[in-house]
Amino acid sequence: xxxxxxxxxxxxxxxxxxxxxxxxxxxxxxxxxxxxxxxxxxxxxxxxxxxxxxxxxxxxxxxxxxxxxxxxxxxxxxxxxxxxxxxxxxxxxxxxxxxxxxxxxxxxxxxxxxxxxxxxxxxxxxxxxxxxxxxxxxxxxxxxxxxxxxxxxxxxxxxxxxxxxxxxxxxxxxxxxxxxxxxxxxxxxxxxxxxxxxxxxxxxxxxxxxxxxxxxxxxxxxxxxxxxxxxxxxxxxxxxxxxxxxxxxxxxxxxxxxxxxxxxxxxxxxxxx
Length: 273
Fold this sequence. Notes:
Shape: globular
Largest sheet: 5 strands, antiparallel
Radius of gyration: 23 Å
């Protein structure tokens, strides 16, 4: 029996995991991340899912090889379309993230190229300004950034669609790309499946509390970082107070914090005659 794998496809606004999703430079920042230009992310002890020892395996499928060149090309396209950002909350980029399972024998480059061809056919007229494949994280995946301009206007929300749009998109991707590589849509989880997942999550939390040293394992940190990255807004809302307190403590104990800390004025040891 031929082994099948779940098709994993996300569609999101560029910067959906950023603290400032309306950042004017969000495309540049996303491109810098995708093209591994942020040195802090490539440190061995960085709090992310990247294994810098494998970053040389990443490759560009569409667009330029530097963030600056990606932005320059984007600005040229915007100018040619005579499009303008009219509102702060206009979506500046739509991102598709297509992932493959870690244990598959799929030809990654061929599969990603077929996926890009499908994207360009499905989103006809919507420019792909960057597509970068990452092989330095827990699972091979490709980030595709679309410039959401249609009829001279930014129409990110329309291009992204809603939950039903995403279901249709995934079904179409399975038909055109998935069948060639034995990728199928996952069956929706039942109540028992969700209950088992929650029980396992609670067991994992208790295990990490009892054995915190397990977090030094790179593989586990990568997986947890990817999971947290998908739920940053919820985590920030729950941990807002704790994160603020931690930031204050860090500032107080840092060199800058110590050197700029206010001190009480010293009283003179003598009295003028």
